[in-house]
Amino acid sequence: MRVSPDYLTPLLDALDRVQSTQQDALQRLGTGRRLQRVSDDPAACAELAQVETQSAAVDQFSSNVTSLRGMLQTSDSALNDTVLLLQREIVLGTQAANGTLSDADRSAIAGEVSGIRDQLLGLANTTYQGHYVFAGTAVTQPAFVTDSTGVKYQGSKSVETIAVSEGQRIQLTYPGDKIFDVVGASVFAATQQMLDALTNGTGISDAVTSVRSAFDNVRMQRVSLDTAMTQLDHAEQQLGNQNVDLQARIQDLAGADLAQTMTTIANADTARQALLETATQINRFNLFDFLK
Amino acid sequence: MGSLFAGLSIAVRAMQAEGSAAQVVSENIANINTSGYSRRLPILTEVLPGDTAVFGGGSGVTLTQVQAVRDRVLELRIAAETQSQSGLQGFQDAMQPVESLFDPSSGGGMESSLNGFFAALSNLATNPSDMTLRQNVMSTADSLTASVRSAVQQVRTAQAQAMSQAEQAAQQASDYLEQVANLNGAIAAAKLGGDSVDGFLDQRAAALQNLSGLMDFAVADSDDGITITTRDGAALVMGQQSFALQVSQDGNTGKLCVVAGDHDVTASIGSGKIGGLLQARDTSMERVITELDSFAYEFTNAFNAQHGLGFALDGSAAGDFFSPATNQAGAAASMSLALQDAAGLGCSSDQLPGSGGNLDKLSALAKSPICGTDNPSDFLAGMGFRIGSEISRAKVGAEAGDVALLQLQAQRSATSGVSLDEEAAQLMQYQRAYQAAARVFTVIDELTQTILGMGTQT
Predict the structure, then answer these.
(1) Cα–Cα distance measured from residue B434 to residue B28, given in angstroms and rounded to the nearest whole number
(2) What is the rounded CA–CA span in Å between residue B305 and residue B327?
(3) Hey, of B85, B117, B126, B390, which one would you mutate to test binding to chain A, going by the most A CBs within 10 A of its CB?
(4) Distance CA A176, CA B410 (A)
(5) What residues pair up with B66 in beta bridges, in sequence order?
(6) How confident is the model at residue B1 (pLDDT cuts 50, 70, 90)?
(7) Closest Cα to residue B264, out of B279, B247, B281?
(8) CB pair distance less than 8 Å for B354 and A139
(9) Minimal CB count within 10 Å: which of A52, A219, B50, B315?
(10) B164: CB partners within 8 A, 6+ apart
(11) Which of A36, A41, A67 shows the shortest C-beta gap to B126?
(12) First-last CA distance in chain A
């Protein structure tokens, strides 16, 4: 059989192939990614897009958790301070209920309670990044204002929740009326009652009872805030785990296998050397060289 | 009874024949690197006994024919393989800018803009009245619309490129068709004059080979050379007449039309570079545009509908977020923001600034089937998948075609290629035969001398 006398075409073609394999591998190595174009593996790319969307959502949830924690911590420490102030008020009230105190002593206590009232109003109007945390959704104006009838809630009653991870939501707004202004357990009404009692010198024990129920209510409301913080911790942990899983999946789908890539490059290099060697060896002579 | 002179003429004839054969060898060697050249074989034939018959033997040798060694079936197979291979290659090359829209490693694609937009919405939910976070939603929405618009632009540019490439290819194809028609004429003339047509045949085969890189066609032998038609039978070359290919754009559909003479042959061009370009431009790219339009249209409207249910920072009812899309066609190219002021973002569900009730529903659109049966992200991923699979199929096909083509060409070269070893051996053979014939001539000449010297004194 006659063989093709043209040995260069297949040789060049083989060299081309080896070089393109090598270049692909080098690119994978350089970028650390197996997938350079969609056509490399369309199905993996489609899955990668979906996983990256999930991963972007998880990343955002994680950063949301950080800012939510700041907000919840501010609210929580405000409630903590409120509880301490109310406790002080109870102690002061109990002292004043003792009949041995002089008018001057009671008046001094009344002065302190009046200071406490101002502090309580300040705590109820706590802001986080410029918005009032106990005003429900009416965050742009103070939750409580003082008018002729006393301290009044002007926030909204809307309780809203926010998603902190896929399928998990926590309470975002804590309307102040539930905390500071519940009928029968109002912080401001009880404090006012205490002030009046101290001024008049009568009904101090009743006032202490009122402050105590306001104190109980604030502590109870604080639990729901603490619950939200605990949920936030869980969510953060869950998001961390999800993130690890998603990153692993992304690496699986798109990451270059370094060992394999290096081997490909080395193999291609060997093949290329062999081809070049062959090119110089074969067909160095033809019959003309031997005919004299 | 033969004569010495008859022997002389046999020797002369042999020298002539062997010399011509050596000339054929030198022709082969000269054309060793000529593409499309088929090696020639000198056919030597014994001159049959006739009037000059010498004692019942022949009258020597003559070069009756120079035969070109070629395999037409093989050449047609190469043509067919070239057509499909270059069609796939053309498709792949044309689609490359479209594929890069969906590059898995790029950070600025539509998919990541979409993710960025929904991330900004989710971020805003932590503090719905915050102007910085609102502004962030606006700017990510702006980059989402910009990336959709630029995607459309990129596909349109690729389409324009494909069209100008198709025009160039059609021009080239017309040149080759004209060459074939001219060669048909030259071959007919050479046949009439009794001259060799092999050179013309080689050139015609080369022109067909080049043509098959550009389009698919059918070849038939006819009385006046070969006839080239499209697969459907529309004439491209008839005898010495060729029909130039013209590429134009259909005013209504925007698709390309290829016209040969008066016939629209677009539908019958399925492969070759022109076929690949047509498929890329008018099928795949057109589909990408339609899908982008559908994405922009449905996303815009679904988002606007939900946005309109919410309230702005000042408690007023929210307006359109994106500029409303009235028509699906062209929706992607004109996708833009309608809202200018971030305070107008309709996050609130109770008219108060701290509410994120509607924002929550807007965020939920990321997971809702608002683009046909897919959520927005899956829809884009699906588009990328379809493009990727098409190109991947073309890639695999082109690679397989490459190998097949290489083998076929090796086969052609084995049949028709010039081998130096072979030519060297033949040159040697003819040289020796020539030397022998010359020697015969000398010997007969000496014999004749002897006869002439008879009777003279020495």
Answers:
(1) 19
(2) 16
(3) B126
(4) 88
(5) B42
(6) very low
(7) B247
(8) yes
(9) B50
(10) none
(11) A67
(12) 27
Task: Give the Cα separation of B337 and B438 in Å (integer).
Answer: 97
Residues 6+ apart with CB under 8 A from A209: none
Identify the burial level of A80 via C-beta atoms within 10 angstroms of its C-beta, where 0-12 means exposed, 13-18 middle and 19 or more buried: middle
Q: List the structure tokens of B185.
A: 């004429």
Question: How far A285 CA sits from the closest chain B CA (Å)?
Answer: 9
pLDDT higher than threshold 60 for residue B442: yes
- Burial bucket for residue B69 (CB in 10 Å: 0-12, 13-18, 19+): middle
Q: Which residues contact B218 (CB under 8 A, 6 or more apart)?
A: B228, B229, B230, B231, B233
Beta bridge partners of B263: B260
pLDDT, tens digit (0-9, with 9 covering 90-100), for A260-275: 999 999 999 999 999 9
Please say whether the beta carbons of B145 and B336 come within 8 A. yes
What are the structure tokens assigned to A154, written together?
């002007």
Burial classification of residue B244, based on how many CB atoms lie within 10 Å of its CB (0-12 exposed, 13-18 middle, 19 or more buried):
middle
Spatial separation of the C-alpha atoms in residues B210 and B83, rounded to whole Å: 10
* Facing residue for A45 by CB, picked from B377, B388, B413: B388
* Chain B residues touching A36 at Cβ < 8 A: 103-105
Nearest CA among B367, B376, B312 for reference residue B339: B312
Residues of A numbered 108-147 whose beta carbons fall under 8 angstroms of chain B's beta carbons: which are they? 129-131, 135-140
Look at residues B155, B383, B96 and name the one whose alpha carbon lies nearest to residue A36.
B96
Q: A160 CB near a chain B CB, below 8 Å?
A: yes
Q: Do A254 and B366 touch (CB under 8 A)?
A: no
pTM, to two decimals: 0.86
Instruction: Identify the residue with better confidence: B52 or B306.
Output: B306
The number of residues in chain A equals 292
Asked if B281 and B247 count as a contact pair (C-beta separation under 8 A), the reply is no
Separation of CA B113 from chain center: 36
Minimum-distance CB partner of A291 among B104, B129, B424: B424
B27-62 burial, b if ≥16 CB within 10 A, otherwise e? Answer: bbeebeeeebbbbbebebeebeeeebebeeeebbbb
Q: What is the DSSP letter of A145?
A: E
Write down the mean pLDDT value for chain A: 90
Residue B255 DSSP symbol: -
The first and second tokens of residue B95, run together, are 């689609």
Instruction: Give ipTM to 2 decimals.
Output: 0.87
Summarised one tens digit per residue, pLDDT across range B198-210 is 889 989 999 999 9
Q: What is the mean pLDDT of residues A161-178?
A: 90
**Separation between Cα atoms, residue A225 and residue A173, nearest integer Å:** 10
DSSP string, B115-162: HHHHHHHHHHTTSTT-HHHHHHHHHHHHHHHHHHHHHHHHHHHHHHHH
User: What tokens appear for A213 in the block?
Assistant: 């129920």
pLDDT of B54 over the 60 cut = no
Q: Which residues contact B310 (CB under 8 A, 6 or more apart)?
A: B318, B346, B347, B348, B349, B357, B358, B359, B361, B362
Minimum CA–CA partner of B410 in chain A: A4
